[in-house]
Amino acid sequence: MKKITDITGSVYTGMWNYEPPFPKFCLQPLPEVPWVKGKVFCEIFEGLHSQTGTYLETPAHYFGNDRSYLITDVPVEKLYEMNCTIVHLERYFEESEQKKEQACITISMLKDVLEKDSPCEGSAILLSTGWGAAWEKEYFLDKSPYIKKEAMEYLISLKPYLLGSDFPRWDNIRKSEGFFQAFYDANILMLAPCVNLHKISSVRCKLTVLPLKIEGTSCTPCRAVIVEEMGYHGEGCKV
User: Fold this and answer.
1) What average pLDDT does the segment 220-229 reach?
2) How many of the other CB atoms lie within 10 Å of CB of 70?
3) Best CATH choice for the domain 2-6+53-229 from the list 1.10.357.10, 3.40.50.150, 3.50.30.50, 3.40.50.720
């Protein structure tokens, strides 16, 4: 029996958003269409940008569109039912929104979980802190957990094809950890931020990510789902 979990955050007017110059999303009705008889019901997506909601990103976001590959260059078959490991870190982040300082992911947290269930090289790794449950909270962006440099270096050493999370800000914006050069040099796709990762009981599962097919961009909003084989607990790198 299979269980399918949508890990895509909803897009709606008034949702959280990165600071300016990123525009804010606003759903607007299409004005009356003069060349059509009768009413036409359609919407305009004002302020939709490449990092609206849950998005998939290539290294071109860091290096530039002329120095790396774009979203439309990623073969769709490589985004369908990828082997995936969920890194359940929820116990470290209970009530973290009440702390004065942002919580961070450390290398010791990762090793505590991953050395028992090491991911396959070339697979997807998703970090689950439970933060996706705060998607509609006003502090979702500002108090997002972040990743320590040593933790990111450890994740890079595992050689994933894709790295994702349920929180929107991987770096500490107030005092950068300085790991993005190494991350993008490793040619890893980014998927973030997701929701519902904490609801996935399996460690091993399948991930499918379908970005919008927009040419000339390093990242686009996407739909992402997890498929679990219920009753299967995972063994090695097989799913």
Assistant:
1) 97
2) 18
3) 3.50.30.50
What's the rounded Cα separation, in Å, for the pair 56 and 133? 20
CA distance 216 to 213: 10
> Six-digit token pair at 212?
């919008």
- Whole-angstrom Cα distance, residue 77 to residue 119? 20
The per-residue pLDDT of the chain, averaged, comes to 93
- Predicted confidence (pLDDT) per residue in 2-33, tens digit: 999 999 999 999 999 999 999 999 999 999 99
pTM: 0.94
C-alpha–C-alpha distance, residues 55 and 48, integer Å: 12
Q: Dihedral of the CA atoms 18, 23, 28, 30 (nearest 10)?
A: -140
Whether the per-residue pLDDT at 97 is higher than 50: the answer is no
